[in-house]
Amino acid sequence: MSMSFDQYMRDSVQPMRDELTNLGFQELRTAEEVEAKLPTAKGTTLVVVNSVCGCAAGQCRPGVGEALKHDITPDHLYTVFAGQEKEATAKAREYFAPYPPSSPSIALLKDGELVHFIERHQVEDRSADQIAADLTSAFDRFCR
């Protein structure tokens, strides 16, 4: 039995993608899709840089899911997948300056400008509940 590496990776990461798309996130898979959405999005936009790592599974995605149960949430939800759609991820990261590339990570933009960012080291060292609390605080501040 033979399976291509690309097919194996698509099959392996699909459940990780589904965790966010089931919450209402739209995947941006090309640099062109990122460029069409992020700079023109009016209001607030949450962008999750998804990843296959354990901290994405144990803290980041669950924390984001919990935060989205809050009364105040962003207007737009987008995700890019680091290591999968490399050009889309690189293009999204251009909007996260001055922060270096980091995955997983979570960006909150308001009218296309970065207003809050959670880097990988802030995911690794905190629980999903702590990440949710950080995000809901940012939602309260920027999404009204």
Walk me through this protein's architecture.
- It is a single chain.
- This protein is α/β, with parallel strands linked by helices and 144 residues long.
- Helix content is 46%, strand content 19%.
- The chain has six helices and five strands; from the N terminus they run H-E-H-E-H-E-H-E-E-H-H.
- A five-stranded mixed sheet has the order 1-3-2-4-5, with helices on both faces.
- A hairpin with a 2-residue loop joins strand 4 and strand 5.
- Helix 3 (54-67) crosses helix 6 (128-142).
- The longest helix has 17 residues, at 5-21.
- The N and C termini lie far apart (54 Å).
- The mean pLDDT is 96.
Describe the secondary structure blueprint for this structure.
Layout: H1 5-21, E1 26-27, H2 31-37, E2 44-50, H3 54-67, E3 76-81, H4 86-93, E4 105-110, E5 113-118, H5 120-124, H6 128-142
Parallel strand pairs: 1-3, 2-3
Antiparallel strand pairs: 2-4, 4-5
Helix pairs in contact: 2-4, 3-6
Pfam family, one: Disulph_isomer
Family: Belongs to the bacilliredoxin family.
Protein name: BrxA/BrxB family bacilliredoxin
**Contiguous helical run count:** 6
Taking the sheet with the most strands, its summary is: 5 strands, mixed
Shape designation: globular
Please tell me how large the radius of gyration is: 15 Å
Share of helix among residues?
40-55%
Strand content: 15-25%
Taken in chain order, the helices and strands follow as HEHEHEHEEHH
Q: What would you call the structural class?
A: alpha/beta
The strands making up the biggest β-sheet line up spatially as: 1-3-2-4-5
Measured between the Cα atoms of the first and last residue, the distance is 54 Å
Query: pLDDT below 50 for ≥5 consecutive residues: which ranges?
Result: none
Mean pLDDT: 96
Instruction: Give the beta-strand count.
Output: 5
Protein name: BrxA/BrxB family bacilliredoxin
Organism: Paenibacillus farraposensis
InterPro entries: BrxB/BrxA
Family: Belongs to the bacilliredoxin family.
